[in-house]
Amino acid sequence: MAMLALVSERIAPDRPRNCFTVPVHKAAAVLVGICLLCAACVTGERPVLTGEMLPSTTMPEDEQGALPAASETTTSVAEPTVSEQVAREDARALVTPTGVIVPVLEVTPEEFVIRTPCGETSSLTLGTPIAVARVVLDPGHGGEESGAVGPNGLQEKDLNLEIAQRAMRKLEERGISVVLARTDDYRIPLSTRAEIGNRLGAEVMVSIHHNAPNWLDSNIPGSEIFVQSGSTESRRLGGLLYEEIVGALLQFDVAWTTNDDAGALAVLNSDGEDAYGMIRRPEMPAVLAEFGYLSNPAEADLFLTDEYRDVAAEALAAGIERYLFTDDPGSGFVDEPRIFTPDGSTGGSGGCIDPPLE
Ligand SMILES: [Zn+2]
Hints:
single chain, alpha/beta, Aminopeptidase, 2 domains, 6-stranded mixed beta sheet, 5-stranded antiparallel beta sheet, about 30% helix, globular, disordered N terminus, binds zinc ion
């Protein structure tokens, strides 16, 4: 699949001394696993948080997704030697031999019990385990759910995936471990996307989108970052991403469009709950970023360019990095929540057909 070709470029030439080893199932899958785990091992001068340093033993099933306190993580990581058996036991998600990321529900000596993208319980004997990721990026839509389609034919699902892949590489270059909730062009309901982030104990989850329909003409990008209404950290993440994305996109001379309350804001349904599943379901600070309007011809043509995709991915990576490593408050907040109830016609599991997993 496309991802495997891409990730082969991401292998650090000098693997950190304290990097975990991974079982050799298939060459391509191992490349993915090494990248994911090596990224988790890079320390550099940045503050070291606890997520990458999970002890390689004893994590009860019912604590999946929860990070242990720092004091529990500092004793067993000096020179970790992770056997294949221990690595298997640590799996919270799996890169299947076909490059799809799936949540792991249980590990037995014979197999991984997994959730398929469509939400079924299944099992696999092969795959590369992932124990933890600091960041999960969710490329919106996929498969027959294309999302918005530009006047130039650009499909939102493809654009979202490319920006997620580019941002992943940029974050990994900064030593921040990343997993994508969708790695290719297949259907995956919101419940499975969120479960990948929750199982991995991610500190941040960002769902990546491009908007429709057209609203008002604007001198500045109409980027919208939807935040969790009950979370000050989601709000801060949203404000930082708003700052980075709008600041970066301003370099493009484009006839932008916007909604009249664009910014970093909460969106509530008629019951007063966060309206979007990718805001409501993740158990960590999460946001949904609408970078711009794919329905606007001028923006759609910009989104086709390599330059836009690189700038958008860099802004996403920079905002996440600032969230993780600074106390910056962000900006662009809209205090009044938007009231909107999605029709629920997409993002569910009805009619979902799983991609090949092995
Ligand atoms: Zn979308």
